[in-house]
Amino acid sequence: RRAALFGDGGDVAGLCRAGVAALRIMEDHMARRRLDGATWFVGDAPGIVDVMLFPSFALSRDWVSHDRGAGHEFHPALRRWARAVRGLPGFVTMPGIPDYN
After folding, report:
1. Are 85 and 91 spatial neighbours (Cβ–Cβ below 8 Å)?
2. 16 falls within a domain
3. What value, to the nearest 5°, has the Cα angle with vertex 69 and ends 11 and 34?
4. What does the pLDDT read at residue 36?
5. Closest by alpha carbon to 41, among 90, 15, 12, 78?
6. Residues 59/97, Cβ–Cβ less than 8 Å
7. 8, part of any domain
8. Is residue 55 part of a domain?
9. What is the CATH number of the domain that holds 31?
10. Could you tell me the pTM of the whole model?
């Protein structure tokens, strides 16, 4: 994200490919969890994994390529999960986090 936003060098294309691959893994995992009736990445309640991964997904819109099938609209399981995270009591939105209605 830093390389994409601030242009500080590095293999931005390679980093984006790796990020898209990670989003696909996350999407597949949450789609399987949904089939099992689960809402969260691990267990039956929100946990540290959800807290750690939420900003990565939410802010990925800054660098994902929508024309290559990597935008948030191509990750319905992650969007559903993100709505659940946003619905947690006490959740406070930081700047840049989109609303997943």
Report:
1. yes
2. yes
3. 110
4. 97
5. 78
6. yes
7. yes
8. yes
9. 1.20.1050.10
10. 0.81
Tell me, yes or no, whether 94 lies in a domain. no
Q: Are 26 and 64 in contact (CB under 8 A)?
A: no
Q: What is the number of structural domains in the chain?
A: 1
Sign of the dihedral through C-alpha 70, 95, 26, 22: positive
Specify the pLDDT at position 39: 98
pLDDT given for residue 56 in this prediction: 87
Q: Which of 89, 86, 90, 87 is nearest to 98 (CA)?
A: 86
**Intervals of the chain under pLDDT 50:** none
Task: Provide the token pair at 62.
Answer: 């800054």
What's the rounded Cα separation, in Å, for the pair 71 and 75?
A: 7
* Tokens 């609209």 sit on residue: 73
> Can you read off the two tokens belonging to residue 20?
């898209």
